[in-house]
C-alpha cells in the first residue's frame, strides 16, 4: 500500500527485508544519492519507505523508486547508474521505454544477480545484437559493450541458436611491452584476453568455462588466429576493435559464415595504434553504417556501469579532448 499523507509525505510499503536492504543500499547510499538527485528526503522505517518534501519533489522521487522497483523488489542492488537512468527517462518522457528494461533479463550471474541492460542505450544495443548479424558498439570504458555481448552470446549458446562462441581481440600493448614474458604464444597473449575470460567466469563459473574451452565450444584467441578461417554457426565477439587496422578489420569481418553473427566493440578514445594509423573500428563504422544487416550503436559516459568515479573520469577526459 502506498499513499501521500496530509503532511507532505509519501509512504510506500515494502514487501520484505531484502527489498528494504536493496533499496537503502550499503550504508543507505542509494537513499542518499536519490535525495541528492530529487531534493526529497527518504528514510526507511521497518518495511516502509517514507518520502518527504514539496509536491514536485515527492512526485519525482516516488516515480524514480517505482521505475527501479524491478530491482529492489527482487533484492537486487540499485546503483547510481540505475537511479540516473530512471531520472533521465522521466525527464525525457521515456518512462515506458525504461520500464521495459525490467523485462529484458538476459541471464543470471554465478552470484545470482539478474543481468539486464541498465540504460536505454544499453537496451537499444541488446536489441540491435538480437536483430542484426553484425553490430558495432562504440563507447567509453565501463559501458557494458563486451559484457552484454558475452551475456547474449552465452544465452544463445545455451538455447542452441549457435554452436560455439569465438571471442577475439588484437594483441596490442597499451603502452607496455609483453614480448619478453616467458611461455609459449598462448601464454604470451593470455594477458590481452583476460577481460574476456573474466566475463565468461562471471556468467558460467571458472570450472564450466574451462570445460567448454577444452571442448572447443568456446574459443578465446588473438585476432591473428582468425585469418583464413570461416566462422559458421558461431557468435563472434571482436573486443578492443579500436586497435585494429582497416586491413585487419576487413579480414575479420569477412570471416563471418552461415548462421553466425558478430559483435565488434571498442572505445575510439583509447586507440593504442602507432601515431598516424587509422583505427579499423572508426573506418568500419563509417563505411558500413548504412549497410542492411549492420547496426552501429554509440554508448556514452551516461551508460557507464562501473564505479561512479569512472563516469566522471570519462567526462573529464572528453572535456579536455574538446579543448
Commentary on this structure:
The chain has about 325 residues and is α/β, with parallel strands linked by helices. The protein contains 13 helices and twelve strands. It has helices spanning about 15-25, 30-40, 55-65, 70, 80-90, 95-100, 120-130, 145-160, 185-205, 205-215, 245-255, 280-285, 310-320, and strands spanning about 1-5, 10-15, 40-45, 50, 105-110, 115, 135-140, 165-170, 220, 235-240, 260-265, 295-300. The strands form three sheets. It has a six-stranded parallel sheet with strand order 9-8-10-11-7-12. Strands 1-2-4-3 form a four-stranded antiparallel sheet. Strands 5-6 form a two-stranded antiparallel sheet. A hairpin with a 4-residue loop joins strand 1 (about 1-5) and strand 2 (about 10-15). About 40% of the residues are buried.
What's the short story on this structure?
The protein is an alpha/beta fold and 323 residues long. Helices cover 43% and strands 17% of the residues.
Whole-angstrom Rg? 22 Å
Shape: globular
Q: What's the end-to-end separation, in Å?
A: 52 Å
Main β-sheet, spatial strand arrangement: 9-8-10-11-7-12
Order of helices and strands: EEHHEEHHHHEEHEHEHHEEHEHEH
Q: Give the rounded overall mean pLDDT.
A: 85
Q: Please indicate the percent range of residues in DSSP E strands (runs of 2 or more).
A: 15-25%
Q: Estimate the helix proportion, in percent.
A: 40-55%
**Could you tell me the number of beta strands?**
12
Structural class: alpha/beta
Extract low-pLDDT stretches.
173-178
Total count of helical runs of at least 4 residues: 13
Tell me the major beta sheet. Answer: 6 strands, parallel
Amino acid at each position: 500500500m502506498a499513499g501521500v499523507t496530509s503532511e507532505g509525505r509519501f509512504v510506500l510499503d515494502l514487501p520484505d527485508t531484502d527489498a528494504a536492504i536493496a533499496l537503502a543500499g550499503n550504508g543507505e547510499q542509494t537513499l542518499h544519492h536519490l535525495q541528492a538527485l530529487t531534493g526529497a528526503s527518504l528514510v526507511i522505517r521497518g518495511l516502509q519507505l517514507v518520502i518527504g518534501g514539496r509536491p514536485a519533489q515527492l512526485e519525482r522521487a516516488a516515480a524514480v523508486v517505482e521505475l527501479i522497483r524491478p530491482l529492489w523488489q527482487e533484492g537486487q542492488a540499485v546503483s547510481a547508474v540505475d537511479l540516473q537512468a530512471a531520472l533521465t527517462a522521466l525527464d525525457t518522457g521515456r518512462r515506458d521505454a525504461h520500464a521495459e528494461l525490467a523485462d529484458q533479463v538476459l541471464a543470471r550471474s554465478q552470484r545470482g544477480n539478474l543481468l539486464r541492460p541498465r540504460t536505454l542505450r544499453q537496451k537499444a544495443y541488446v536489441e540491435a545484437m538480437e536483430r542484426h548479424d553484425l553490430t558495432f558498439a562504440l563507447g567509453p570504458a565501463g559501458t557494458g559493450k563486451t559484457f552484454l555481448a558475452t551475456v547474449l552470446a552465452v544465452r544463445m549458446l545455451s538455447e542452441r541458436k549457435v554452436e560455439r562462441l569465438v571471442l577475439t581481440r588484437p594483441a596490442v600493448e597499451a603502452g607496455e611491452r609483453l614480448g619478453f614474458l616467458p611461455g609459449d604464444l598462448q601464454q604470451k597473449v593470455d594477458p590481452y584476453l583476460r577481460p574476456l575470460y573474466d566475463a565468461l567466469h562471471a556468467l558460467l563459473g571458472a570450472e564450466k568455462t574451462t570445460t567448454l574451452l577444452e571442448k572447443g565450444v568456446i574459443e578465446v584467441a588473438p585476432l591473428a588466429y582468425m585469418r583464413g578461417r570461416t566462422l559458421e554457426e558461431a557468435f563472434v565477439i571482436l573486443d578492443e576493435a579500436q586497435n585494429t587496422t582497416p586491413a585487419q578489420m576487413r579480414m575479420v569481418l569477412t570471416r563471418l559464415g552461415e548462421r553466425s553473427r558478430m559483435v565488434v566493440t571498442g572505445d575510439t578514445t583509447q586507440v593504442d595504434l602507432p601515431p598516424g594509423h587509422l583505427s579499423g573500428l572508426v573506418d568500419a563504422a563509417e563505411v558500413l553504417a548504412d549497410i542492411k544487416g549492420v547496426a552501429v550503436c554509440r554508448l556514452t559516459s551516461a551508460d557507464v556501469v562501473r564505479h561512479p568515479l569512472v563516469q566522471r573520469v570519462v567526462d573529464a577526459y572528453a572535456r579536455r579532448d574538446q579543448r
